[in-house]
């Protein structure tokens, strides 16, 4: 088994009060294979976001290692790490974090322009095809105040994919959406995964995890269990998948 991203014995400890500490991640080991759609599910406070921030190099773990495509990223210096995050990783969060003073299209292309690796024409073309894929072509020139929450999250997804990342990370990416928009974003992620993208989500929501391919269950900073659901193909499978996962929580 070759891992695109591998976490080995990752620990995160926060100071807690004056003389105490809180062990938020406890020897977490995880291998994400290329092309996988994996979710880490667990109750609020179990350490899911902390795990995502630490394995993606957004935060510094207390001990342990993370390898991406065989390269140890946990020992990289901040400049190399931010370059790696920019070019190899995409992120979506609960809030879309789009910039208010740019229109939708400019929000999507900004990080690729900043990376200065490709001509703007090439970047613009990719942005256009991502907008088409996510169904937001008609709002390209709009202000972010003129789009719905679901459209904005799809724009955030385009922004996350603009540099052709090797892996897409999502922290409760549908958490701020109504259930219809959330379902649409999850279906979009599933279809992007079927086209080959590697995706790792963290969520407390069994409905979200049910549309992923493998679910890892986290509790009190430990990975307790995991379930191979296989790729989600049709809605008739969903109810059973959701029920199985809800029983876990
Ligand atoms: P989840 O995403 O599963 O809800 P988090 O990873 O956000 O959980 O948090 C796990 C635990 O770590 C919580 O008890 C939280 O209070 C603690 N924690 C998270 N971030 C910090 C921080 N920056 N400083 C101190 N404690 C933190
Ligand atoms: Mg969280």
Describe the overall structure.
The chain has 249 residues and is α/β, with parallel strands linked by helices. The chain has eight helices and ten strands. Strands 6-7-8-3-9-10 form a six-stranded mixed sheet, with helices on both faces. The protein has a four-stranded antiparallel sheet with strand order 2-1-4-5, with helices on one face. A hairpin with a 2-residue loop joins strand 4 and strand 5. The longest helix is centred in the last third of the chain and has 16 residues. The protein starts with a strand and ends with a helix. The chain binds adenosine-5'-diphosphate and magnesium ion.
Strand proportion, as a percent range, falls in 25-35%
* Residue runs with pLDDT of under 50 for 5 or more positions: none
Total number of beta strands: 10
Which cofactor or ligand species appear?
A: adenosine-5'-diphosphate, magnesium ion
Q: Tell me the Rg in angstroms.
A: 18 Å
Order of helices and strands: EEEHEEHEHHHEHEHEEH
Largest beta sheet, briefly?
Answer: 6 strands, mixed
Task: Output the strand order for the largest sheet.
Answer: 6-7-8-3-9-10
User: Fraction of residues in helices?
Assistant: 25-40%
What is the overall pLDDT average? 95
Oligomeric grouping of the chains: single chain
